[in-house]
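Lecture 7 notes: from sequence to structure.

We start with a single chain of 919 residues. Read the sequence below before looking at the structure.
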Amino acid sequence: MHDWHSEVRARLASLRLKPERETDIVDEIAQHLEGRYREAISAGASPDEATRIALAEFQPGNALAQRIAALKQAHAPAAVTIGASTSNLLADFWHDLRYAARAFAKQRAFAATAVLILALGIGATTAIFSVVYSVLIKPLPYPNADELVRLRHSTAGQLGGADFEPTMYITYRDENRTLASVGIWQDASTTLTDGGEPERLRSVRVTDGTLQTLGVQPLRGRWFTKDEHGPAAEGAEPVIISYGFWQRRFGGDDDAIGREISMDSRPARVVGIMPAAFRFLDLATQPDVITAVRLDEAKLIINGGWSYQGIARLKPGVTPDEARADIERMRRIWIDSWPLPNIPGVTRDALAAFPVAAVVRPLKDDIVGGAASMLWVLMGAIGAVLLVACANIANLTLVRADARRQELAVRAALGAGTARIARALLVENLVLGFAGSVLGLLLAYLGLEFLVALGPTNLPRLREIGVYPPVLAFTVAVSLLATLLFGSMTVVKHAMRAAAPLVAAARGSTTSRERNKARSVLVVVQVALALALVVSAALMIRTFQELRDLDPGFAEPTTVQSARIWMPVSMLGQPEQYTRMEHEILDRIAALPGVESVGFASALPLEGAGFLGNAPIVIEGQPLPTTGFPTLRANKFVSPGYFAAMGTRIIAGREITWSDIETGGRVVVISESFARELAGEPAAAVGKRIRTFVETDAWREIVGVVQGIHETDLYEDAGSFVYFPTLLADMWGGPLYGTPNVAFAIRSERAGTASLMDDVRQAVWSVNAGAPVTHTRTMADLYSGSLARTSFVLVLLAIAGGMALVLGIVGIYGVVAYVVAQRTREIGIRSALGAEPKELARMFLRQGLVLSCVGAVAGLVAAGVLGRLMSSLLFGVSSLDPVAYVAALAATIAAATLAAYLPARRAAKIDPMNTLRAE
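Now the structure, written as tokens:
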């Protein structure tokens, strides 16, 4: 019988009718032709003659021909405008959208699964990108921030970041050719003494040019004037306060400008209030007050006190390398322009020989530091999870599309072209993509709160992390990309095949080898990416284990309480008095209930390099280096009992005693690595003498050697340290040298409790009522803080690896289960012919394991690449650590075996009689 529908559709193809309209007209005309055909047959015509009679209806003059002519005139291409075409496209899109909504409403399980998988991938990717954007991409919150640079002076062996002294700043300010502005600043603290309990305030001391370089205008009031940076004058000192301190201290009162407060028992007048969003660089604790550095340029000398940090703004068009060369040029000008201190050995030639080099680095790069590699690794890991999610959804949509082959074939038979079917399938994918992106954005908001809470406190710009417009644009782009990734395969494969004849599309239910291959490739990709991420998580677990097993140089950190005590400013320059006061405080704390031992130091381990010092150390009997300048050694000042309180082992000799301090402190304790460098064996170093490079300083006998202590970071070597007594005679060319603020280490089972800290405060205030007690935390807190970066990366990589592994398992399970469902008839026949259930199970289990093994091989290669990229995050572990690789491989293969076994086991239990009866 003639296909009247195809005949009519071919004659109407040029009209571009709407699908609903076209179907109605085609059905009507086809029925008319069918009627004419049957009339001719009834009249005795042969089938060929009847077909010619029916087709004669299309000849000019007949009613049917006239109707088609009218349709062609109404829908002639010349009459189709751009607006009409757009209207048709919108109508088609709306029709496809409603159809997709109805289809997904009937297949809720598929839609919910696909949307959830996509939402997890998009949500995780958006959350991590929010962190990457906020930390690495978003400009710093200063005008023309790309012009800002950090000025440093690198010295071999130097710790910390203090690199300037005032005379150097003035030379750079006046002699430079490349800097639009320059300033130096100093991290500090002060005590609010307005009455009541003393409050320690975080402060920053700035020279003229520092705030101007940053370019952020005060919310109220003004910056400091040049006169306020000059020699000290009578009256209250000017201060600029933070927005938070303004709200806390003055309740946001506009009359705060001009008001006076008492800082360190001296009057200070508020001249400016900074905006709420202002951040002074990226200090972990932002300053409450900003004070002016006062310089009397006529009285300045080169004093070697490099206790300031530098910041500058480049002139337009100047590069950091050009600025660095300019600073190198000015260094000799600085040496020749300023008076030298009256210290033997300090000469202009000695300063010129000092092993120092200028470093000019974009401020953003300086703030971000080593966080960039960590964040890009995490971004890549989460991006891999999104790829696994897309592969999983592509597998789901392929399976769903296979089940719709007859539907698509019928639509093609009814005249729907390849482009029309492809567009309908793409709209369905867009619906899934839109729903997944909306839910993913919600998950990203929730995940971002988790990331900020989990993020280490030393993560740069942590408080700036948020969802900004570029992040939303990224989410839209990722959603579209994900939709194309998982939808393109379905659209291409099934839209092209939908045009095949209906009979060919309806042949059997056995899946073609090509469709199986596509799903298998997707599973291999999922397994490969999952294994790479699991290996990276295993490497971080191994790193965490190595760090946890590392001896930090102190014992039982949960039982060591720390508290920093600040001596009043009025006592500065009187080292004997504040050392006596620190000793008395130590005795009061030692008498508290439950306190086993106590000591203090200028810095506790892991407290930060900013509390540590560096000194050029001369070793008795050894010549100076050829450069004429001794090697810098990290150092800090400790009290008697400090090492006992910390649980640090004495390897040779003894600790410092109060008798040593009373007789001038002419003794030191050194670290094990320094002792081995000095004498080969720790015991052989005891009795040797060292001093600073200042010729008038006293020689100090090494009386003890302690185990290596990780003073700055667990990732760094313990290093060579010198531990000086807390009070020393003949030090740095002066008669006495002491430490005005110290951190106490209190070993007690009560560590970490509020009751112990209440007792400690009362003990301190019983000696000095104005001494603030800050930095109250246990050594376990400091220890955990040093592990925070590793913990952060570990948790996120573990989440990424877990998500990828679960999705990979789902992919393997889905493929094997689908194959089992498609081969149910074959399984029934095999069983009926005597095949053993175990053999049937092995057949499908083997298929899952082959896919897993192929994916595992590719995954091992990907893991090797990812491991090299994250090598800077590892400690004590190679990026090719066999334990991590074997463990990850075993876990992935075991999970894949389980995923394949479940549907294989179900295949073995298929009843052949029920299967054949169904056939």
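The radius of gyration is 39 Å. Keep this in mind for problem set 3.
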